């Protein structure tokens, strides 16, 4: 799940550089009921609460930077075909840096699905928290 969160984070960064850029900036989690347990705003900046990873975790997207509870990613390349965005991001967990490929599909207002085929096929829906 942690690797997948990092992938999502990277994908969201890539999305932020496309025509839907403004739509992806913000705080994202898998359950809106967890928003107040995962995120906080400090000095007008989004941040994770200390135990965010124990409460659904999530992603913070700010331009080309995507931050998860365990990884930070920077988008290297992206392809927006109008239906989804395919991206490659460079992610670091503080120990190692690796390139991650993933796809993000808008599924409704303030909703996306993040998917990855490697290392294990995964698909996770996310909702944006109003902060």
Task: Give a short summary of the structure.
The chain has three helices and ten strands. It is of the alpha+beta class.
Helix amount, in percent?
A: 10-25%
The overall average pLDDT, rounded, is 82
- The percent range for strand residues is over 45%
Low-confidence stretches: 1-22
Radius of gyration, rounded?
13 Å
Describe this entry's structure for a reader.
This protein has 131 residues and is an alpha+beta fold. The chain has one domain (2-129). It has helices at 2-16, 21-24, 35-38, and strands at residues 26-29, 39-42, 45-48, 59-62, 65-68, 72-80, 85-92, 97-108, 111-116, 122-129. Helix content is 18%, strand content 48%.
Please describe the structure with a list of short key phrases separated by commas or semicolons.
two-stranded antiparallel ribbon, eight-stranded antiparallel barrel, 131 residues, disordered N terminus, alpha+beta, globular
Secondary-structure topology with pairs:
Elements: H1 2-16, H2 21-24, E1 26-29, H3 35-38, E2 39-42, E3 45-48, E4 59-62, E5 65-68, E6 72-80, E7 85-92, E8 97-108, E9 111-116, E10 122-129
């Amino acid at each position: 799940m942690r690797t997948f969160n990092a992938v999502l984070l990277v994908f969201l960064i890539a999305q932020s550089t496309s025509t839907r850029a403004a739509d992806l900036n913000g705080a994202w989690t898998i359950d809106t009921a967890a928003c107040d347990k995962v995120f906080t705003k400090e000095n007008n900046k989004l941040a994770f609460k200390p135990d965010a990873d124990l409460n659904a975790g999530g992603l913070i997207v700010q331009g080309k930077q995507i931050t998860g509870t365990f990884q930070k990613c920077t988008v290297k390349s992206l392809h927006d075909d109008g239906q989804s965005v395919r991206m490659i991001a460079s992610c670091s967990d503080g120990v190692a840096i690796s390139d991650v490929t993933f796809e993000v599909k808008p599924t409704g207002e303030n909703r996306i699905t993040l998917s990855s085929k490697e290392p294990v096929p995964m698909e996770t829906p996310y909702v944006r928290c109003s902060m």
